[in-house]
Design brief:
The chain is of the alpha/beta class. It is built from eleven helices and nine strands. It is globular, with a radius of gyration of 21 Å. The structure holds ligand C2E and calcium ion (CA) (3 copies).
Length: 275
C-alpha cells in the first residue's frame, strides 16, 4: 500500500509538471499567434429588443492553433492575462475592431472586451485615443466592455481610467452583471453607460420565477439609473418574449445571431442604397 501511495504521488507530480509545461507552451504560442495570422475576430449582433433592429456588434477573439485547432477564449484569455500577453493582444483587437467599424456605412456600435490588465496598464487611454485618431472612428461608436472583477485590483485607478475614456466620448458597458462582487456600489462608482445582464440569468428567465424576479429588478435598476440594459445569451423566443414584455432595451444571443465573420453581416454594415 505504501509503494502504491508513492506511485500515486509521483504520478501526481508528473501530471502537475505536464500541466505547467503545457501552459508555458500555450503562452509561448500565444505570443506569436497574431504575427502568424492565427487570430481572427468574429462579430455578434446586438439588437434593439422592441424592434429587432441591429444596433451594434460585440467583437470576440478566435484562435486557430496550428496543432490544437480552435482554442477557446475561456482557455487562452486567462493565460494571456497572467503572462501579460493580453496587452499586445488587446491592442491588436482594439485596432482591428475600430478599423473594421470605421468602414461600415451604418454608424453601428462596436463593443470591445477589455481585460482588467489593460484597464490597470498606464497607457489604455492614450492607446484608445491613438486608435480612434488613426482609424477615424467616432468615439461614440466604440463601447468598452469591462467586468466588475476587472476593476477590483485598484478601484481608484480603474475609476480614473474609465472616467477619462468616457470624457473622450467612448461608451462603457458593465459586462457579466450579477456574477461579480458588490455590483450595486459599482454601478455608482464607475461611469457605466450600459448594463449587460449575464447569460446565466437569461437561461431560466422564462421558466423560473426567482430568476424572472431578479431580471425584473435589474431592469428596474437600469431604468432608475438611466442605464439601458442588454440581456446576453438570449437563445429562445420565450426568453426574448419575456425581455420585450419587461422593456429590456437590447438583446444579444444565438437567437439573434452567432458570433461570425463580419462579412456575414454585410447587409447591416453596408446596406445597399435605399434597401
Ligand atoms: P463574454 O464577453 O461574456 O462574451 C460572450 C460569450 O458568450 C462569447 O463566448 C459568446 O460566443 C457567447 N455567447 C453569445 N451568445 C450566446 C448564446 O446565446 N448562448 C451561449 N451559450 N453563448 C453565447 P466566447 O466568444 O467563447 O468568449 C468567452 C469569453 O472570453 C468572453 O465572454 C470574454 O470574457 C472573453 N473574450 C473573448 N474575446 C475577448 C477579447 O477580445 N478580449 C478579452 N479581454 N476577452 C475576450
Ligand atoms: Ca463581453
Ligand atoms: Ca458577458
Ligand atoms: Ca430558457
Amino acid at each position: 500500500a505504501k509503494s502504491e501511495g508513492r506511485g500515486t504521488y509521483r504520478f501526481f507530480e508528473a501530471t502537475m509538471g505536464a500541466q505547467v509545461r503545457d501552459r508555458r507552451l500555450l503562452e509561448h504560442d500565444l505570443r506569436y499567434a497574431v504575427a502568424r495570422g492565427e487570430m481572427r475576430l468574429v462579430y455578434q449582433p446586438q439588437s434593439d429588443a422592441a424592434t429587432g433592429a441591429v444596433i451594434g456588434f460585440e467583437v470576440l477573439l478566435r484562435w486557430q492553433h496550428p496543432e490544437r485547432g480552435a482554442v477557446s477564449p475561456a482557455i487562452f484569455i486567462p493565460v494571456a492575462e497572467e503572462s501579460g500577453v493580453i496587452l499586445q493582444l488587446g491592442e491588436w483587437v482594439l485596432r482591428e475592431a475600430c478599423r473594421e467599424a470605421a468602414t461600415w456605412k451604418n454608424p453601428l456600435t462596436v463593443a470591445v472586451n477589455v481585460s482588467g490588465v489593460q484597464v490597470h496598464a498606464p497607457n489604455l487611454v492614450p492607446l484608445v485615443q491613438d486608435v480612434l485618431h488613426e482609424t477615424g472612428l467616432a468615439p461614440e461608436r466604440l463601447e468598452i466592455e469591462v467586468t466588475e472583477t476587472a476593476l477590483i485590483r485598484e478601484p481608484a485607478r480603474a475609476q480614473a481610467t474609465l472616467r477619462q475614456l468616457k470624457s473622450i466620448g467612448v461608451r462603457i458597458a458593465m459586462d457579466d452583471f450579477g456574477t461579480g462582487y458588490s455590483s450595486l456600489s459599482n454601478l455608482r462608482s464607475y461611469p457605466f453607460d450600459k448594463i449587460k445582464i449575464d447569460a446565466s440569468f437569461i437561461r431560466t428567465v422564462d421558466s423560473n420565477e426567482q430568476t424572472a424576479a431578479i431580471v425584473r429588478s435589474v431592469l428596474g435598476l437600469g431604468r432608475g439609473l438611466g442605464m439601458p440594459v442588454l440581456a446576453e445569451g438570449v437563445e429562445t423566443e420565450e426568453e426574448l418574449r419575456f425581455l420585450v414584455k419587461e422593456n429590456c432595451a437590447a438583446v444579444q444571443g444565438f437567437l439573434m445571431g452567432r458570433p461570425s465573420p463580419i462579412a456575414t453581416f454585410s447587409h447591416f454594415t453596408h446596406p445597399a442604397p435605399g434597401g
